[in-house]
Amino acid sequence: MKQTFFLAIVLAFTLTSCAPPVGGPIEDTFWKLTYMNGEIPEGVEVSAVFKEGKITGKGACNRYFADYEIDGGTLKVGPVGATKMMCPEQATLEDQYFGILPKALAFSVKGETLSVQCEGAKLRFVKGEESPLER
User: Which pTM value belongs to this model?
Assistant: First the structure.
């Protein structure tokens, strides 16, 4: 009896630690940020693409990159590196995004929406199409 109970616990732990992403994968999709602890101002385009352990995209002004790891529904993002173009009108929003992204804890996908729970913040993206300016 004890052995059966122990095996059940081990099996349950193994299955939950190897669980697939909640709601679907996030990789190889172009995501547009629509919410960052509030709505994103109109005309501001922030994007993210997760592929092969690297996240790349465009902040409010600069292109950025970071490493990431996915384990089931958990998401870990490393420090963000970015180009250094000057865009004073977008600097605060971009700095906020670059600061929140590495605090990612978990994610879920529901339909066309990717939600990322971060330490002290929430990000929401929708599937989009990459514009020629994003490339």
Answer: 0.78
Confirm if 104 and 73 have CB atoms less than 8 A apart: no
SS (H, E, C) the chain: CHHHHHHHHHHHHHHHHCCCCCCCCCECCEEEEEEECCECCCCCCCEEEEECCEEEEECCCCEEEEEEEEECCEEEECCCEECCCCCCCCHHHHHHHHHHHHHEEEEEEECCEEEEEECCEEEEEEECCCCCCCC
Question: Strand 63-71 vs strand 81-82: parallel, antiparallel, or unpaired?
Answer: antiparallel
Question: What tens digit of pLDDT does each residue of 20-50 get?
Answer: 445 568 999 999 999 999 999 988 999 999 9
The Cα–Cα gap between 37 and 34 comes to 10
Q: What whole-number distance in Å separates Cα of residue 52 and Cα of residue 19?
A: 19
pLDDT digits (tens, 9 = 90+) for 42-77: 889 999 999 999 999 999 999 999 999 999 999 999
All domains in the chain, ordered by first residue: 20-127 (2.40.128.270)
Structure tokens at 27: 């990789």
